[in-house]
Amino acid sequence: MSGEGNGNNEDDKSLEGLRQLIRMLAVKSGIDEAMADDLFDLLLTVDPEKGISDEEVEQMKGYKQADVRKVFRIFYDLRIASYRRGKHPDTGATRYYWYLDSRDADLALLRRKKQVLEKLKMRLEYERSNEFYVCPKDGTRYTFDYAYEYQFTCQKCGTMLVPEDNSSYIRVLENRISRLEEEIKRDERQIFGH
């Protein structure tokens, strides 16, 4: 990753965001997230000029080669890992040597940040364009249309709903969006040199 190893707090945040994405995709694929984390840490130490094969990982870590390949495939699909083909020194069979590509990792994280930004913008629009009512007992939140349909009574407990002022929530969303937009601009300058 750009600036890695310099103790930069922004790089630490970026790395943690990437780790969270990897864990989520591992679980979604039925892969142990701890193994995915461990293999990511391993690839962080691998020399990109040499790479590491799934067979070498199995010998080092004890993970099955098939599981290692699944995790490496997640990294490849995220465009944070690449591989080069080589020959097994004894058998001559084709072997794949994996390594992290920091530029691709930065691009994958940038794409993820842009996806999050779009979701935050959609949520902000939803908050701005709706009027909300809330149950004072259990905190259940309703849009005006839903509250109107049920005569402004909570469907869980029957309590009368009260109008909700969501302006502070809107401000929180606006601040998050603004910070994320700045972070994205900074990342783009770092990656693309603009």
Automatic annotation (TrEMBL):
<keyword id="KW-0805">Transcription regulation</keyword>
<dbReference type="GO" id="GO:0006355">
    <property type="term" value="P:regulation of DNA-templated transcription"/>
</dbReference>
<dbReference type="GO" id="GO:0006367">
    <property type="term" value="P:transcription initiation at RNA polymerase II promoter"/>
</dbReference>
<dbReference type="InterPro" id="IPR017919">
    <property type="entry name" value="TFIIE/TFIIEa_HTH"/>
</dbReference>
<protein>
    <recommendedName>
        <fullName>Transcription factor E</fullName>
    </recommendedName>
</protein>
<comment type="subunit">
    <text>Monomer. Interaction with RNA polymerase subunits RpoF and RpoE is necessary for Tfe stimulatory transcription activity. Able to interact with Tbp and RNA polymerase in the absence of DNA promoter. Interacts both with the preinitiation and elongation complexes.</text>
</comment>
<dbReference type="InterPro" id="IPR024550">
    <property type="entry name" value="TFIIEa/SarR/Rpc3_HTH_dom"/>
</dbReference>
<feature type="domain" description="HTH TFE/IIEalpha-type">
    <location>
        <begin position="18"/>
        <end position="106"/>
    </location>
</feature>
<dbReference type="InterPro" id="IPR039997">
    <property type="entry name" value="TFE"/>
</dbReference>
<dbReference type="InterPro" id="IPR002853">
    <property type="entry name" value="TFIIE_asu"/>
</dbReference>
<dbReference type="Pfam" id="PF02002">
    <property type="entry name" value="TFIIE_alpha"/>
</dbReference>
<dbReference type="InterPro" id="IPR036388">
    <property type="entry name" value="WH-like_DNA-bd_sf"/>
</dbReference>
<keyword id="KW-0238">DNA-binding</keyword>
<dbReference type="GO" id="GO:0003743">
    <property type="term" value="F:translation initiation factor activity"/>
</dbReference>
<comment type="function">
    <text>Transcription factor that plays a role in the activation of archaeal genes transcribed by RNA polymerase. Facilitates transcription initiation by enhancing TATA-box recognition by TATA-box-binding protein (Tbp), and transcription factor B (Tfb) and RNA polymerase recruitment. Not absolutely required for transcription in vitro, but particularly important in cases where Tbp or Tfb function is not optimal. It dynamically alters the nucleic acid-binding properties of RNA polymerases by stabilizing the initiation complex and destabilizing elongation complexes.</text>
</comment>
<keyword id="KW-0804">Transcription</keyword>
<keyword id="KW-0396">Initiation factor</keyword>
<keyword id="KW-0648">Protein biosynthesis</keyword>
<dbReference type="InterPro" id="IPR036390">
    <property type="entry name" value="WH_DNA-bd_sf"/>
</dbReference>
<comment type="similarity">
    <text>Belongs to the TFE family.</text>
</comment>
<dbReference type="InterPro" id="IPR016481">
    <property type="entry name" value="TF_E_archaea"/>
</dbReference>
<dbReference type="GO" id="GO:0003677">
    <property type="term" value="F:DNA binding"/>
</dbReference>
